[in-house]
Automatic annotation (TrEMBL):
Residues 1-75 form the IGFBP N-terminal domain. Belongs to the CCN family. GO terms for cellular component: extracellular matrix; extracellular space; nucleus. PROSITE patterns: IGFBP_N_1, IGFBP_N_2, TSP1, VWFC_1, VWFC_2. Residues 79-145 form the VWFC domain. It comes from Oriolus oriolus. This is CCN family member 5. The lineage of its organism: Eukaryota, Metazoa, Chordata, Craniata, Vertebrata. It is found in: Secreted. The gene is Wisp2. It holds the Pfam family TSP1_CCN. GO terms for molecular function: heparin binding; integrin binding. One of its GO terms (biological process) is signal transduction. Coiled coil: none annotated.
Length: 218
């Protein structure tokens, strides 16, 4: 009955298929007639405007009041998160860029940096340190400007032994960056082989995040 009411035969489709947003593939509509952009997580759907089945999404009418439309949700109440138009499963680890790594947790996601954020102070052998982007490398690195020469130094290179005693100094660890799930805490300290101030990070978790109802995706 639904097909008879909503599907016209023969099919009349536009010559040019629609241009879909990132992460939304072209699929056949509910009548199997014309190509449309698949609806993504949380977007409205109906018989004609179908959800992206490749992401495990179905048109969920369970939370729709009488007379209103439904939304795309995970099948079997499966949780996940959407980042830049792509849906990740709960617990899946992914990298939106080479500088950060994230994990999908309970409908949200937590990220940690992959690049060091140390602070380099001027020294006798490097009076003018400067951090720059290096072609072909993801993380920026320090260079030393001495007179008119630019000396590229790898941040992981072994430095000569310190010629002076290093008095240890550091701040307390900050509060966790998230109130639930995996986050990170930071502090500034010189407790390293270079006796140099740097920002240090470590993972932390105050408590697990409560599970979100499938009807309200994050």
């Amino acid at each position: 009955q639904v097909c008879a009411q909503l599907c016209r035969r023969p099919c009349y489709c536009p010559w040019v298929p629609p241009r879909c947003p990132r992460g939304s593939p072209l699929v056949l509509d509910g009548c199997g007639c014309c190509k449309i952009c698949a609806r993504r997580l949380g977007e409205p759907c109906d018989f004609l405007h179908v959800c992206d089945q490749s992401q495990g999404l179905v048109c969920d009418y369970s939370s729709a009041p009488a007379g209103t439309g439904a939304t795309c949700n995970f099948e079997d109440d499966e949780e996940g998160c959407e980042v830049n138009g792509r849906v990740y499963r709960d617990g899946e680890v992914f990298q939106p860029s080479c500088k950060i790594q994230c994990q999908c947790l309970d409908g949200g996601f937590n990220c940690i940096p992959l690049c060091q954020e140390d602070v380099r102070l001027p020294t006798v052998d490097c009076p003018y340190p400067r951090r720059v982007e290096i072609p072909g490398k993801c993380c920026p690195e320090w260079i030393c400007e001495a007179q008119d020469q630019h000396l590229l130094r790898d941040a992981r290179a072994v430095s000569p032994l310190l010629r002076f005693p290093c008095q240890e100094w550091g701040t307390e660890w900050s509060a966790c960056s998230t109130t639930c799930g995996v986050g990170f805490a930071t502090r500034v300290s010189n407790q390293n082989r270079y006796c140099r101030l740097e920002t240090q990070r470590r993972l932390c978790m105050v408590r697990p995040c409560p599970a979100l109802p499938a009807a309200f995706p994050a």
